[in-house]
Design brief:
The protein is an alpha/beta fold. It has one domain: Nucleotidyltransferase, domain 5. The protein is 45% helix and 23% strand. A hairpin with a 2-residue loop joins strand 2 and strand 3.
């Protein structure tokens, strides 16, 4: 199974492509999509959309995974992340890729075994599970890798059909 996982954001969107077969991971690619500060919001969203479309076309994923939106006290940030998340989901839908969504608690539980784990614990486990030499950087890419691991390990398999 090829998993494309996205950690959306307007300035930086993390992505990870992981293969998963019989309990073994194979890293396809991971990194970030960045947009230019000061560029109009609609153009930044278009850039994110186009980059995700390219990832879908390049890797032909079996599933697309994104974190459910977490609301904090900064409503402005939540709205911009929601917009980025929306264009990512649209790119997956237009590519015919089934999607799954996980809460931060589910991701932490699947990767660390503890839903209230901190970011450093999640990153350390991502490094161990994927047999990497170092913790993946930047943080947004590490978060996308954690999402992909969560989906691979998910007993629920919360797939939403096309």
């Amino acid at each position: 199974m090829v998993i494309l996982a996205i950690d959306p954001g307007t300035a930086t969107t993390g992505y990870a492509v992981l293969g998963y077969e019989r309990g073994a991971f194979e890293i396809g690619e991971y990194g970030v999509i960045t947009t230019e500060k000061g560029r109009p919001a609609h153009m930044r969203l278009k850039d994110i959309y186009n980059a995700v479309v390219r990832l879908v076309e390049l890797h032909s994923p079996d599933c697309f995974v994104v974190e459910e939106l977490f609301f904090n006290t900064n409503v402005r940030t939540a709205i911009s992340v929601g917009q980025a998340r929306g264009v990512c989901l649209l790119a997956a839908a237009n590519g015919g890729v089934p999607t799954a969504e996980y809460t931060p608690l589910q991701v932490k539980s699947a990767v660390v075994g503890y839903g209230k784990a901190d970011k450093s614990q999640v990153q350390h486990m991502v490094k161990l599970l994927l047999k990497l030499d170092a913790i993946p950087k930047p943080d947004d890419a590490a978060d996308a890798l954690a999402l992909a691991i969560c989906h691979a390990h998910s007993a629920e398999g919360r797939m939403i059909r096309r």
